[in-house]
């Protein structure tokens, strides 16, 4: 019996949120891998992402004195309507409905919905002030931190999107993302703790990509192909906190 099938209070908000997030993630994974019925999926990308967001959001909430209940509920439910085109708006409405049927404090439900509605996008405009309230800022930061770093590379290479890519294509896919998009994501972080983590994670991500490129060069292969950007062979990782 899985953790989601065990008997529990049917109105316990945390359990209900976990179940909703897990159900959505399985639906997405089965569609991505072409798996039907109860057959196992090779890798559940969305569940890995959501559980990481929850852990990071709780950590950032404690560091910034954000409301932990609002942050955790928003983290569990932020992608619960990921299959829809306006998933943040749809997710906010779904969160209202899901939480209203639980023992979650009713006066906090709208704050959860607002944070979810604000979380979309990998970057924010240059010079934009931090999101408010702090719970929205924390969710945005936690969501984006999962896209940066060594673990983010492992998750990216395990997803169905890369299953048919060669090693060189996998490197180029990740290197372009790290080089072209993620510096702007790092600059967009709302909270001080997230800025520190994002900067460290990007440096370590680039370090791994540069080490991979160095080894490929030793094998007589240029992973860049026709791409013009450079990732330094000696990009330094940075110490842990």
Observed structural traits:
241 residues, mainly alpha, Hypothetical protein af1432, 2 domains, 9 helices, 59% helix, globular
What does this structure look like?
- The protein has 2 domains: 1-146, Hypothetical protein af1432 (Orthogonal Bundle); 148-241.
- By secondary structure, the chain is mostly helical.
- The model has no long low-confidence stretch (mean pLDDT 91).
- It has helices spanning 13-33, 45-64, 68-77, 87-100, 109-117, 134-145, 150-158, 167-187, 192-218.
- Helix 6 packs parallel to helix 9 (192-218).
- The protein is globular and about 60 Å long.
State the CATH superfamily name of the largest domain. Hypothetical protein af1432
How many domains make up the coordinates? 2
How many beta-strand elements? 0
* Largest sheet composition: none
Low-confidence stretches: none
The N- and C-terminal alpha carbons lie at a distance of 39 Å
Main structural class: mainly alpha
Can you identify the CATH class of the largest domain? Mainly Alpha
DSSP helical segment count: 9
| Strand percent estimate | under 5%
SSE string, helix = H, strand = E? Answer: HHHHHHHHH
Q: Summarize the amount of helix as a percent range.
A: 55-70%
Q: Whole-number radius of gyration?
A: 19 Å
**Could you please say which CATH topology of the largest domain applies here?**
Hypothetical protein af1432
């Amino acid at each position: 019996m899985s953790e989601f099938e065990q008997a529990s209070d049917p109105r316990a908000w945390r359990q209900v949120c976990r179940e909703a997030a897990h159900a959505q993630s399985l639906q997405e994974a089965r569609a991505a891998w072409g798996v039907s019925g109860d057959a196992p999926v090779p890798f559940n990308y969305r569940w890995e992402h959501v559980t990481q967001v929850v852990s990071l959001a709780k950590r950032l909430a404690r560091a910034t004195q954000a409301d932990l209940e609002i942050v955790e509920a928003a983290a569990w439910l932020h992608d619960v309507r990921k299959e829809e085109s306006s998933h943040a708006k749809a997710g906010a409405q779904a969160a209202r409905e899901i939480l209203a049927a639980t023992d979650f404090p009713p006066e906090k439900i709208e704050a959860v919905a607002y944070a979810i509605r604000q979380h979309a996008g990998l970057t924010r405009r240059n010079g934009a002030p931090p999101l408010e309230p702090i719970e929205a800022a924390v969710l945005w930061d936690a969501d984006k931190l999962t896209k940066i770093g060594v673990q983010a590379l492992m998750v990216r290479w395990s997803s169905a999107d890369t299953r048919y890519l060669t090693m060189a294509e996998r490197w180029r896919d990740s290197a372009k993302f790290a080089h072209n998009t993620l510096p702007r994501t790092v600059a967009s972080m709302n909270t001080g703790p997230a800025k520190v983590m994002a900067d460290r994670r990007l440096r370590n991500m680039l370090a791994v990509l540069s080490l991979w490129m160095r080894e490929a060069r030793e094998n007589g292969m240029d992973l860049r192909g026709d791409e013009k950007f450079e990732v330094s062979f000696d990009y330094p990782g940075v110490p842990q906190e």
